[in-house]
């Protein structure tokens, strides 16, 4: 029996329009990151990706990539997605993600929210994609904590209160703050 092989694309949805608004409240390293609008869910996002695949590669490209196209993880609070795609045709999906310039609007005929999709990692297993997601999230928390003299804490508090997994994220942020302070103390000791 032949096993169907997949690839997992970990990507972030960035909002360039929010960078100008949020310069005062966010660290500069996180100024393009914002929560995804509430109306956008995994099904609507996958439909939007399918439309872009059809737009760029036609029905043939959609047929090649449709066999296992599925969102495995979607966090509206952090605008992070893990997408499962067929191994042989993951570059088609990656190219379509690169050409997405706006999210779908809640109503037909209205312009969508401008965005940029940045593919962070292509992985052969979901485990490696999740590990990369955790590693990047920890790095962002440390950067938010260490830069801009406390602005990161207000950003983290706002992020923790948002989204379906806000309570879990708030608990994780509170638990991890102690380890982040230890980590930042270790980094400052090494630089001396």
From TrEMBL:
<keyword id="KW-0378">Hydrolase</keyword>
<protein>
    <submittedName>
        <fullName>RNA-binding protein pop5</fullName>
        <ecNumber>3.1.26.5</ecNumber>
    </submittedName>
</protein>
């Amino acid at each position: 029996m032949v096993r169907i092989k997949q690839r997992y694309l970990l990507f972030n949805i960035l909002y360039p329009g929010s960078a100008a608004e949020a310069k005062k409240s966010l660290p500069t390293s996180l100024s393009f990151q914002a929560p995804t609008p509430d109306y956008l869910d995994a099904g609507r996002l996958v439909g939007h990706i399918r439309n872009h695949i059809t737009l760029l590669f036609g029905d043939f490209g959609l047929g090649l990539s449709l066999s296992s196209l599925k969102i495995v993880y979607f966090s509206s609070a952090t605008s992070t997605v893990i997408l499962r795609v067929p191994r042989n045709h993951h570059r088609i999906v990656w190219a379509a993600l690169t050409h997405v310039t706006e999210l779908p609007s809640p109503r037909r005929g209205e312009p969508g929210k401008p965005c940029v999709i940045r593919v962070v990692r292509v992985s052969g297993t979901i485990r490696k994609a999740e590990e990369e997601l955790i590693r990047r999230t920890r790095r962002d928390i440390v950067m938010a904590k260490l830069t801009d003299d406390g602005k990161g804490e207000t950003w983290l508090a706002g992020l923790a209160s948002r989204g379906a997994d806000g309570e879990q994220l708030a608990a994780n942020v509170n638990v991890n703050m102690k380890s982040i302070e230890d980590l930042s103390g270790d980094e400052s000791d090494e630089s001396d």
